[in-house]
Specification:
mainly alpha
């Protein structure tokens, strides 16, 4: 999170991806990966992260909106 707060989204993205390898269904990590992916322009990872977040919480309006906006 520190790297993201400092504006180094690429570095934060790398660390959040590593965290996801340990806990692939952690919503906090998935949201952080989605946020960083959006910042660095990785639409594929953004799509996958949002899709997995919707699997965990299909009624999350914010995630649904972001996911719909990608299509």
């Amino acid at each position: 999170r520190i790297y993201a707060q400092l504006g180094d989204n690429a570095k934060a993205f790398q660390y959040f991806l590593q965290a996801l390898e340990l806990e692939s269904y952690n919503p906090e990590y998935l949201r952080a990966v989605a946020d960083c992916a959006e910042q660095v322009g990785d639409r594929d990872r953004l799509y996958k992260s949002l899709k997995k977040l919707l699997e965990i919480d299909p009624y999350n309006a914010e995630v649904k909106g972001r996911f719909s906006a990608l299509k």
